[in-house]
Design brief:
Elements: E1 22-25, E2 34-48, H1 55-61, E3 68-82, E4 86-90, H2 97-105, E5 112-118, E6 121-124, H3 137-148, H4 155-165, H5 181-193, E7 199-203, H6 211-226, E8 230-234, H7 238-244, E9 247-252, E10 255-261, H8 262-284, E11 294-295, E12 300-308, E13 317-319, E14 323-332, E15 336-337, E16 340-347, E17 350-356, E18 366-367, E19 372-380, E20 386-395, E21 402-415, E22 436-438, E23 449-451
Parallel strand pairs: 1-5, 4-8, 4-9, 6-7, 7-8, 13-21
Antiparallel strand pairs: 2-3, 2-5, 9-10, 11-21, 12-14, 14-19, 15-18, 16-17, 16-20, 20-21, 22-23
Protein backbone atom coordinates (compact mmCIF):
# COMPACT_ATOMS: atom_id res chain seq x y z
CA UNK A 1 0.00 0.00 0.00
CA UNK A 2 1.48 3.32 -1.03
CA UNK A 3 1.54 6.21 1.36
CA UNK A 4 -0.55 9.13 0.20
CA UNK A 5 0.93 12.30 1.62
CA UNK A 6 -1.07 15.46 1.80
CA UNK A 7 0.72 18.72 1.07
CA UNK A 8 -0.55 22.26 0.83
CA UNK A 9 -1.73 23.31 -2.65
CA UNK A 10 1.04 24.59 -4.86
CA UNK A 11 0.44 27.17 -7.58
CA UNK A 12 1.62 24.94 -10.39
CA UNK A 13 1.11 21.51 -11.88
CA UNK A 14 0.45 19.73 -8.61
CA UNK A 15 -2.68 19.16 -6.61
CA UNK A 16 -3.31 19.22 -2.91
CA UNK A 17 -3.36 15.45 -2.98
CA UNK A 18 -0.44 13.88 -4.80
CA UNK A 19 -0.50 10.54 -6.58
CA UNK A 20 0.65 7.49 -4.69
CA UNK A 21 4.41 7.23 -4.56
CA UNK A 22 4.89 10.91 -5.39
CA UNK A 23 5.39 13.38 -2.57
CA UNK A 24 5.30 17.11 -3.22
CA UNK A 25 6.39 19.87 -0.90
CA UNK A 26 6.05 23.48 -2.06
CA UNK A 27 8.97 25.55 -0.86
CA UNK A 28 10.07 29.12 -1.42
CA UNK A 29 13.74 28.26 -0.90
CA UNK A 30 14.98 24.96 -2.25
CA UNK A 31 18.60 25.93 -2.91
CA UNK A 32 19.89 23.76 -0.08
CA UNK A 33 18.16 20.57 -1.09
CA UNK A 34 17.50 18.45 -4.13
CA UNK A 35 14.67 19.68 -6.30
CA UNK A 36 13.67 16.11 -7.24
CA UNK A 37 14.61 12.82 -5.64
CA UNK A 38 13.78 9.55 -7.38
CA UNK A 39 14.27 6.43 -5.24
CA UNK A 40 14.10 2.90 -6.70
CA UNK A 41 11.28 3.79 -9.09
CA UNK A 42 9.89 1.08 -11.35
CA UNK A 43 7.07 1.20 -13.87
CA UNK A 44 5.68 -1.52 -16.11
CA UNK A 45 3.02 -1.46 -18.81
CA UNK A 46 0.85 -4.33 -20.02
CA UNK A 47 0.71 -4.51 -23.82
CA UNK A 48 -2.21 -6.63 -25.11
CA UNK A 49 -1.71 -8.51 -28.38
CA UNK A 50 -5.42 -9.08 -28.99
CA UNK A 51 -8.13 -6.54 -29.59
CA UNK A 52 -11.74 -7.46 -28.82
CA UNK A 53 -14.19 -5.36 -30.83
CA UNK A 54 -17.36 -7.46 -30.70
CA UNK A 55 -19.49 -8.83 -27.88
CA UNK A 56 -18.74 -12.42 -28.93
CA UNK A 57 -14.98 -11.82 -28.81
CA UNK A 58 -15.27 -10.31 -25.37
CA UNK A 59 -17.34 -13.23 -24.08
CA UNK A 60 -14.89 -15.77 -25.50
CA UNK A 61 -11.98 -13.90 -23.93
CA UNK A 62 -13.45 -14.71 -20.50
CA UNK A 63 -12.60 -18.39 -21.02
CA UNK A 64 -9.03 -17.96 -22.28
CA UNK A 65 -6.25 -15.83 -20.85
CA UNK A 66 -5.44 -12.82 -23.03
CA UNK A 67 -2.05 -12.61 -24.68
CA UNK A 68 -0.34 -9.76 -22.83
CA UNK A 69 3.26 -8.63 -22.93
CA UNK A 70 4.82 -6.84 -19.96
CA UNK A 71 7.10 -3.91 -20.77
CA UNK A 72 9.41 -2.63 -18.03
CA UNK A 73 9.59 1.07 -18.87
CA UNK A 74 11.59 1.85 -15.72
CA UNK A 75 13.46 -0.63 -13.57
CA UNK A 76 14.76 0.44 -10.13
CA UNK A 77 15.82 3.96 -11.16
CA UNK A 78 17.41 6.15 -8.50
CA UNK A 79 18.64 9.69 -9.17
CA UNK A 80 18.74 13.17 -7.69
CA UNK A 81 18.18 16.51 -9.43
CA UNK A 82 19.95 19.27 -7.46
CA UNK A 83 18.05 22.51 -7.06
CA UNK A 84 19.12 25.25 -9.44
CA UNK A 85 20.73 22.96 -12.00
CA UNK A 86 20.02 22.27 -15.67
CA UNK A 87 19.85 18.49 -15.98
CA UNK A 88 19.53 16.38 -19.12
CA UNK A 89 18.09 12.92 -19.71
CA UNK A 90 19.29 11.06 -22.80
CA UNK A 91 18.82 7.61 -24.28
CA UNK A 92 17.40 5.75 -27.22
CA UNK A 93 13.71 5.74 -28.10
CA UNK A 94 11.80 3.56 -25.65
CA UNK A 95 14.44 3.79 -22.92
CA UNK A 96 11.99 5.30 -20.39
CA UNK A 97 12.84 9.02 -20.57
CA UNK A 98 9.30 10.33 -21.07
CA UNK A 99 7.91 7.85 -18.54
CA UNK A 100 10.37 9.18 -15.96
CA UNK A 101 9.29 12.77 -16.58
CA UNK A 102 5.60 11.84 -16.35
CA UNK A 103 6.22 10.17 -13.00
CA UNK A 104 8.11 13.26 -11.80
CA UNK A 105 5.14 15.39 -12.87
CA UNK A 106 2.67 13.10 -11.11
CA UNK A 107 0.92 12.06 -14.33
CA UNK A 108 1.86 8.41 -13.83
CA UNK A 109 1.96 6.38 -10.63
CA UNK A 110 5.08 4.25 -10.15
CA UNK A 111 4.67 0.55 -9.46
CA UNK A 112 7.46 0.75 -6.92
CA UNK A 113 9.71 3.33 -5.36
CA UNK A 114 9.16 6.93 -4.36
CA UNK A 115 9.51 10.39 -5.94
CA UNK A 116 9.87 13.56 -3.91
CA UNK A 117 9.46 16.96 -5.58
CA UNK A 118 10.58 19.94 -3.52
CA UNK A 119 8.95 23.00 -5.04
CA UNK A 120 6.37 23.94 -7.62
CA UNK A 121 6.57 22.32 -11.00
CA UNK A 122 5.63 23.25 -14.57
CA UNK A 123 5.73 20.46 -17.17
CA UNK A 124 5.81 20.52 -20.96
CA UNK A 125 5.71 16.82 -21.71
CA UNK A 126 3.38 16.14 -24.61
CA UNK A 127 2.08 18.04 -27.58
CA UNK A 128 -1.02 19.94 -26.47
CA UNK A 129 -1.05 18.49 -22.94
CA UNK A 130 -3.66 20.41 -20.96
CA UNK A 131 -5.20 22.07 -24.01
CA UNK A 132 -8.76 21.78 -25.36
CA UNK A 133 -9.04 21.64 -29.14
CA UNK A 134 -12.48 23.24 -29.10
CA UNK A 135 -11.30 26.37 -27.28
CA UNK A 136 -9.48 29.30 -28.84
CA UNK A 137 -5.79 30.00 -28.44
CA UNK A 138 -6.49 32.77 -25.94
CA UNK A 139 -8.92 30.64 -23.94
CA UNK A 140 -6.51 27.71 -23.81
CA UNK A 141 -3.61 29.83 -22.56
CA UNK A 142 -5.84 31.40 -19.91
CA UNK A 143 -7.15 27.98 -18.81
CA UNK A 144 -3.74 26.30 -18.78
CA UNK A 145 -2.23 29.38 -17.12
CA UNK A 146 -4.78 29.13 -14.32
CA UNK A 147 -3.81 25.49 -13.79
CA UNK A 148 -0.13 26.48 -13.72
CA UNK A 149 -0.79 29.20 -11.15
CA UNK A 150 -0.77 32.46 -13.10
CA UNK A 151 -1.63 35.24 -10.56
CA UNK A 152 -5.11 36.61 -11.21
CA UNK A 153 -3.87 40.21 -11.40
CA UNK A 154 -1.27 39.29 -13.99
CA UNK A 155 -3.34 36.78 -15.96
CA UNK A 156 -4.12 39.07 -18.93
CA UNK A 157 -0.51 40.25 -19.27
CA UNK A 158 0.98 36.76 -19.06
CA UNK A 159 -1.53 35.35 -21.53
CA UNK A 160 -0.64 38.08 -24.03
CA UNK A 161 3.08 37.49 -23.45
CA UNK A 162 2.71 33.73 -24.03
CA UNK A 163 0.78 34.24 -27.28
CA UNK A 164 3.32 36.81 -28.47
CA UNK A 165 6.29 34.55 -27.65
CA UNK A 166 4.64 31.71 -29.58
CA UNK A 167 4.16 34.14 -32.51
CA UNK A 168 0.45 33.35 -32.66
CA UNK A 169 -1.11 36.82 -32.35
CA UNK A 170 -2.93 36.34 -35.67
CA UNK A 171 -4.46 33.11 -34.37
CA UNK A 172 -5.52 34.49 -31.00
CA UNK A 173 -9.21 33.74 -31.61
CA UNK A 174 -8.74 30.61 -33.72
CA UNK A 175 -9.70 27.22 -32.31
CA UNK A 176 -6.78 25.10 -31.29
CA UNK A 177 -7.77 22.24 -33.61
CA UNK A 178 -6.92 24.48 -36.57
CA UNK A 179 -3.28 24.93 -35.55
CA UNK A 180 -0.34 22.91 -36.79
CA UNK A 181 1.71 20.67 -34.51
CA UNK A 182 4.54 23.21 -34.53
CA UNK A 183 2.19 25.96 -33.40
CA UNK A 184 0.89 23.74 -30.59
CA UNK A 185 4.30 22.99 -29.15
CA UNK A 186 5.28 26.66 -29.38
CA UNK A 187 2.12 27.63 -27.52
CA UNK A 188 2.63 24.98 -24.85
CA UNK A 189 6.25 25.97 -24.34
CA UNK A 190 5.42 29.68 -24.13
CA UNK A 191 2.58 29.04 -21.67
CA UNK A 192 4.70 26.85 -19.40
CA UNK A 193 7.49 29.45 -19.34
CA UNK A 194 5.20 32.12 -17.89
CA UNK A 195 4.48 30.07 -14.76
CA UNK A 196 6.20 30.97 -11.49
CA UNK A 197 7.56 27.46 -11.06
CA UNK A 198 10.69 26.28 -9.29
CA UNK A 199 11.09 23.34 -11.67
CA UNK A 200 10.53 22.95 -15.41
CA UNK A 201 10.14 19.54 -17.06
CA UNK A 202 10.77 19.74 -20.81
CA UNK A 203 10.39 16.82 -23.20
CA UNK A 204 11.89 17.39 -26.68
CA UNK A 205 10.88 21.04 -26.86
CA UNK A 206 13.58 21.68 -29.51
CA UNK A 207 12.34 18.89 -31.76
CA UNK A 208 9.47 20.95 -33.20
CA UNK A 209 9.64 24.47 -34.54
CA UNK A 210 11.51 26.41 -37.15
CA UNK A 211 15.05 27.71 -36.80
CA UNK A 212 13.93 31.13 -35.55
CA UNK A 213 11.78 29.67 -32.76
CA UNK A 214 14.55 27.28 -31.77
CA UNK A 215 16.89 30.27 -31.51
CA UNK A 216 14.37 31.94 -29.18
CA UNK A 217 14.27 28.78 -27.08
CA UNK A 218 18.06 28.85 -26.81
CA UNK A 219 17.92 32.44 -25.54
CA UNK A 220 15.28 31.45 -22.99
CA UNK A 221 17.36 28.49 -21.83
CA UNK A 222 20.37 30.73 -21.31
CA UNK A 223 18.29 33.15 -19.25
CA UNK A 224 16.76 30.34 -17.16
CA UNK A 225 20.22 28.95 -16.56
CA UNK A 226 21.41 32.39 -15.45
CA UNK A 227 18.46 32.56 -13.03
CA UNK A 228 19.45 29.13 -11.64
CA UNK A 229 16.07 27.58 -12.37
CA UNK A 230 15.84 23.82 -11.99
CA UNK A 231 15.24 22.30 -15.41
CA UNK A 232 15.00 18.66 -16.50
CA UNK A 233 15.41 18.39 -20.27
CA UNK A 234 14.77 15.21 -22.26
CA UNK A 235 16.32 15.48 -25.70
CA UNK A 236 17.97 13.57 -28.52
CA UNK A 237 19.90 16.73 -29.44
CA UNK A 238 23.22 15.90 -27.78
CA UNK A 239 24.73 19.23 -28.79
CA UNK A 240 22.01 21.09 -26.89
CA UNK A 241 22.39 18.73 -23.92
CA UNK A 242 26.13 19.41 -23.69
CA UNK A 243 25.56 23.13 -24.19
CA UNK A 244 23.02 23.67 -21.43
CA UNK A 245 23.17 20.78 -18.98
CA UNK A 246 25.45 20.48 -15.99
CA UNK A 247 24.48 16.89 -15.23
CA UNK A 248 23.17 14.19 -17.53
CA UNK A 249 21.39 10.90 -16.84
CA UNK A 250 21.55 8.17 -19.47
CA UNK A 251 18.64 5.71 -19.46
CA UNK A 252 19.03 2.44 -21.33
CA UNK A 253 16.28 -0.17 -21.38
CA UNK A 254 14.54 1.42 -18.40
CA UNK A 255 17.62 1.41 -16.20
CA UNK A 256 20.02 4.21 -15.27
CA UNK A 257 23.13 3.35 -17.29
CA UNK A 258 25.29 6.31 -16.27
CA UNK A 259 25.07 9.64 -14.45
CA UNK A 260 27.59 12.46 -14.20
CA UNK A 261 28.86 15.58 -15.93
CA UNK A 262 27.37 16.41 -19.32
CA UNK A 263 30.54 15.92 -21.37
CA UNK A 264 31.47 12.67 -19.60
CA UNK A 265 28.06 11.02 -19.98
CA UNK A 266 27.41 12.19 -23.55
CA UNK A 267 30.84 11.07 -24.74
CA UNK A 268 30.38 7.68 -23.10
CA UNK A 269 26.92 7.35 -24.64
CA UNK A 270 28.38 8.21 -28.05
CA UNK A 271 31.17 5.70 -27.58
CA UNK A 272 28.76 2.88 -26.71
CA UNK A 273 26.43 3.87 -29.57
CA UNK A 274 29.37 3.91 -31.96
CA UNK A 275 30.48 0.46 -30.87
CA UNK A 276 26.97 -0.84 -31.45
CA UNK A 277 26.88 0.98 -34.78
CA UNK A 278 30.13 -0.60 -35.89
CA UNK A 279 28.77 -4.04 -35.07
CA UNK A 280 25.69 -3.33 -37.17
CA UNK A 281 27.83 -2.00 -40.02
CA UNK A 282 30.03 -5.08 -39.98
CA UNK A 283 26.93 -7.27 -39.99
CA UNK A 284 25.52 -5.32 -42.92
CA UNK A 285 28.75 -5.82 -44.83
CA UNK A 286 28.34 -9.58 -44.76
CA UNK A 287 27.65 -10.99 -48.25
CA UNK A 288 24.01 -11.87 -47.53
CA UNK A 289 23.16 -8.68 -45.64
CA UNK A 290 21.78 -5.40 -46.95
CA UNK A 291 21.54 -1.86 -45.60
CA UNK A 292 18.08 -0.54 -44.87
CA UNK A 293 18.84 2.87 -46.42
CA UNK A 294 20.46 1.88 -49.66
CA UNK A 295 19.47 2.40 -53.27
CA UNK A 296 20.90 2.64 -56.78
CA UNK A 297 21.05 0.64 -59.99
CA UNK A 298 24.02 -1.42 -58.72
CA UNK A 299 26.37 -0.66 -61.60
CA UNK A 300 28.99 0.15 -58.96
CA UNK A 301 28.55 -1.03 -55.37
CA UNK A 302 30.36 -0.13 -52.16
CA UNK A 303 31.49 -3.26 -50.35
CA UNK A 304 33.96 -2.07 -47.70
CA UNK A 305 34.92 1.08 -45.80
CA UNK A 306 37.95 1.86 -43.66
CA UNK A 307 38.69 4.96 -41.60
CA UNK A 308 42.33 5.56 -40.79
CA UNK A 309 44.98 8.17 -40.19
CA UNK A 310 47.28 9.38 -42.96
CA UNK A 311 49.94 6.85 -41.93
CA UNK A 312 47.45 4.01 -42.45
CA UNK A 313 46.53 3.33 -38.82
CA UNK A 314 42.93 2.13 -38.53
CA UNK A 315 40.92 4.49 -36.38
CA UNK A 316 37.29 5.04 -35.39
CA UNK A 317 38.05 7.81 -32.90
CA UNK A 318 39.81 11.06 -33.84
CA UNK A 319 40.96 14.11 -31.99
CA UNK A 320 39.68 17.42 -33.29
CA UNK A 321 42.17 18.71 -35.87
CA UNK A 322 43.47 15.28 -36.96
CA UNK A 323 43.64 14.27 -40.62
CA UNK A 324 41.43 11.31 -41.53
CA UNK A 325 41.28 9.09 -44.60
CA UNK A 326 38.11 7.30 -45.66
CA UNK A 327 38.94 4.35 -47.93
CA UNK A 328 36.08 2.85 -49.92
CA UNK A 329 36.25 -0.45 -51.77
CA UNK A 330 33.87 -0.83 -54.72
CA UNK A 331 32.89 -3.67 -57.03
CA UNK A 332 32.01 -2.76 -60.61
CA UNK A 333 29.11 -4.60 -62.26
CA UNK A 334 29.11 -2.65 -65.51
CA UNK A 335 31.46 -0.33 -67.42
CA UNK A 336 31.42 3.24 -66.07
CA UNK A 337 33.13 6.32 -67.51
CA UNK A 338 34.48 8.59 -64.78
CA UNK A 339 31.66 8.23 -62.20
CA UNK A 340 31.33 10.81 -59.42
CA UNK A 341 31.99 9.68 -55.84
CA UNK A 342 30.56 11.67 -52.94
CA UNK A 343 30.55 11.67 -49.15
CA UNK A 344 28.31 13.30 -46.53
CA UNK A 345 29.12 13.69 -42.83
CA UNK A 346 26.15 13.94 -40.46
CA UNK A 347 25.73 14.64 -36.76
CA UNK A 348 22.35 13.17 -35.92
CA UNK A 349 19.96 14.62 -38.49
CA UNK A 350 22.23 17.59 -39.30
CA UNK A 351 24.47 17.56 -42.37
CA UNK A 352 27.80 19.06 -41.34
CA UNK A 353 29.79 18.55 -44.56
CA UNK A 354 29.37 17.13 -48.05
CA UNK A 355 31.56 17.00 -51.13
CA UNK A 356 32.41 14.90 -54.18
CA UNK A 357 35.41 14.40 -56.38
CA UNK A 358 33.89 16.66 -59.05
CA UNK A 359 33.64 19.59 -56.65
CA UNK A 360 37.18 18.86 -55.49
CA UNK A 361 38.34 19.11 -59.13
CA UNK A 362 39.72 15.57 -59.18
CA UNK A 363 38.06 13.39 -61.83
CA UNK A 364 37.87 9.65 -61.30
CA UNK A 365 38.74 7.18 -64.05
CA UNK A 366 37.02 4.64 -66.26
CA UNK A 367 35.92 1.49 -64.43
CA UNK A 368 35.49 -1.85 -66.19
CA UNK A 369 32.92 -4.53 -65.36
CA UNK A 370 34.23 -7.14 -62.92
CA UNK A 371 36.78 -4.77 -61.46
CA UNK A 372 37.34 -4.31 -57.73
CA UNK A 373 38.85 -0.93 -56.90
CA UNK A 374 39.53 1.50 -54.07
CA UNK A 375 38.83 5.22 -53.80
CA UNK A 376 39.50 7.48 -50.85
CA UNK A 377 38.66 10.87 -49.35
CA UNK A 378 41.15 12.61 -47.04
CA UNK A 379 39.86 15.41 -44.84
CA UNK A 380 40.65 17.46 -41.74
CA UNK A 381 38.57 16.54 -38.71
CA UNK A 382 37.78 20.16 -37.86
CA UNK A 383 34.73 19.14 -35.86
CA UNK A 384 33.40 19.54 -32.34
CA UNK A 385 33.02 16.53 -30.05
CA UNK A 386 30.36 14.14 -31.25
CA UNK A 387 29.39 10.92 -32.98
CA UNK A 388 29.37 11.41 -36.75
CA UNK A 389 27.94 9.11 -39.40
CA UNK A 390 29.09 8.86 -43.01
CA UNK A 391 26.87 8.57 -46.09
CA UNK A 392 28.49 7.56 -49.37
CA UNK A 393 27.29 7.66 -52.95
CA UNK A 394 28.43 7.16 -56.53
CA UNK A 395 26.60 8.41 -59.61
CA UNK A 396 26.94 8.74 -63.38
CA UNK A 397 28.91 11.85 -64.33
CA UNK A 398 26.60 12.78 -67.23
CA UNK A 399 22.98 12.12 -66.26
CA UNK A 400 23.36 11.78 -62.47
CA UNK A 401 21.96 8.24 -62.25
CA UNK A 402 22.66 6.86 -58.79
CA UNK A 403 24.69 3.67 -58.97
CA UNK A 404 24.89 3.17 -55.19
CA UNK A 405 23.95 5.25 -52.16
CA UNK A 406 24.26 4.11 -48.55
CA UNK A 407 23.24 6.05 -45.45
CA UNK A 408 25.28 5.43 -42.30
CA UNK A 409 27.87 3.33 -44.12
CA UNK A 410 30.32 3.92 -41.28
CA UNK A 411 30.79 6.30 -38.36
CA UNK A 412 33.41 7.81 -36.09
CA UNK A 413 33.80 9.78 -32.86
CA UNK A 414 35.51 13.14 -32.39
CA UNK A 415 36.79 14.14 -28.98
CA UNK A 416 39.27 16.50 -27.32
CA UNK A 417 37.73 19.50 -29.10
CA UNK A 418 38.02 22.96 -27.56
CA UNK A 419 34.80 24.13 -29.18
CA UNK A 420 32.18 25.18 -26.63
CA UNK A 421 29.22 25.42 -29.02
CA UNK A 422 28.45 24.62 -32.64
CA UNK A 423 29.71 21.76 -34.79
CA UNK A 424 33.05 23.12 -36.01
CA UNK A 425 36.44 23.32 -34.34
CA UNK A 426 38.50 26.03 -36.06
CA UNK A 427 41.63 25.34 -33.99
CA UNK A 428 41.54 28.83 -32.53
CA UNK A 429 44.53 30.36 -30.77
CA UNK A 430 44.70 33.23 -28.31
CA UNK A 431 47.58 35.62 -27.76
CA UNK A 432 47.89 38.55 -25.38
CA UNK A 433 50.43 41.08 -26.66
CA UNK A 434 52.08 43.72 -24.44
CA UNK A 435 50.16 46.97 -24.29
CA UNK A 436 51.44 49.86 -26.43
CA UNK A 437 51.36 53.62 -25.86
CA UNK A 438 51.44 56.33 -28.50
CA UNK A 439 54.24 58.88 -28.32
CA UNK A 440 53.93 62.50 -29.32
CA UNK A 441 54.13 63.15 -33.09
CA UNK A 442 57.61 63.82 -34.45
CA UNK A 443 58.67 66.72 -36.65
CA UNK A 444 57.36 64.91 -39.71
CA UNK A 445 53.96 64.34 -38.08
CA UNK A 446 54.49 60.57 -37.76
CA UNK A 447 53.27 58.93 -34.54
CA UNK A 448 55.44 56.11 -33.28
CA UNK A 449 54.27 53.38 -30.88
CA UNK A 450 56.19 52.41 -27.78
CA UNK A 451 55.82 49.08 -25.98
CA UNK A 452 54.84 49.48 -22.36
CA UNK A 453 56.59 46.96 -20.19
CA UNK A 454 55.29 45.91 -16.84
Amino acid sequence: MWRRRRSRPAPCFSSARSPSGVSRFASSNISRMNAIEVRHVSKTFRIPHERHTTLVERLLSLFRPPAVETLAALDDVTLEVPAGQFVGVIGANGSGKSTLLKIMAGLLVPDGGDVQVNGTLSPLLELGLGFNNELTVHENVALYGAVLGYPRKEMARRVNEAIAFAELERFRDAKLKNLSSGMLVRLGFATALRADADILLLDEVLAVGDARFQAKCVDVFMELKRQRKTIVLVSHDLIAVQRFCEQVFWLDGGRLAKAGGAAEVVNYYLYISQMQGLRSVRAAQEPEAEFESRWGDGRIRFVESHLETEDGTARTRFRAGDRAVLRLVVEVQGDCEQPVFGVILRLGSHVVYSTNNGVLGTPSRAFAAGERAEVCFAFAVGLANGHYSVNVGVADRVDGTIHDWINDFTDFIVDDSHSLEGIADLDAEFRCAPSVAAEAPGPDGVVSMRTRTS
